[in-house]
Amino acid sequence: MPASPPTRAFPPSVALLDAAPEEAQFDDFHIEALRVRTVRRNWTIPAHVHHGLHQVFAIERGGVRAVVDGEQLTARGPAILLAPSAAPHAFRFAEGSTGRVLTLRHIRTFLDRKEPAARLERLLFAHSAILAFSASSAEWRDLLRLLTVLEHERIRRREGPIDTANHLLTAILGVLARRAEQRRLETTHQGAPHAALFAAFENLVDETLLQHLSSSSYAGRLGVSISTLDRICRNHAGSSPARYVRNRLYLEARRRLAYSDAAIQHIADDLGFADVGYFSRFVSRHSTLSPSGLRRQLRGRGEG
Hints:
The chain folds into 2 domains: 29-189, Sandwich (Jelly Rolls), CATH 2.60.120; 193-299, Orthogonal Bundle (Arc Repressor Mutant, subunit A). The chain is 47% helix and 17% strand. It contains 11 helices and 9 strands. The model has no long low-confidence stretch (mean pLDDT 84).
């Protein structure tokens, strides 16, 4: 496996790394071979961030070490690496790695049905993740075929009366969501109790993020001591439970500031903060900017 990629404190915001202005303009998605932006950089992608854009890395052969929103991830092909919008990320791929990179806008922008769109966003892009596959599995072969056809349809999508690319994109996300749900169930029911406990903690954080629960509350709901939860969280996420929750909440705050036109007061209320002053201090501790300053920065650096 390659060494861990370098990171930087304030990564630049881009639509597509190293892209010409006309290339960075696309409708719902962009797809290309993995080697397009990795070979020229000696298989190392420096830290950067996409606002309003999720990324799906389909790694067929080779591997990658990544840092996504401060979390260290390692994947060997065949695998999918999911990088959510507004999460800074950097990569170091093994030389000769192959695959595709799918960059897509928020699912609600191209999937008309709100409830399925919200479910897909939650399953796939609530946080970064690795989805491992077997090279011989029908699911992986189907996924590669869908990605291949999607790449062809991206070029031809304006030629016919039906947007085939949009249907293909939805099908790909459906396959990934099914695997993500299988991963959750496998982790929860596998014999390693620590992995199962951390998965349960992740799920509980997703469900209660806006309630601002304490570490002791999470430990109590999971039926373990605070010290046990702290040890397992540090082993799996590299941080304390409190910091893990704060990072998740800050990521959600960044997303809402970037994509919503709601007043800062309304965003603070929606995120469960007692008052806008507390929300401002929370954002400032993580970004050194006020909420309005962070919003201007996010929107002024190539949100799409």
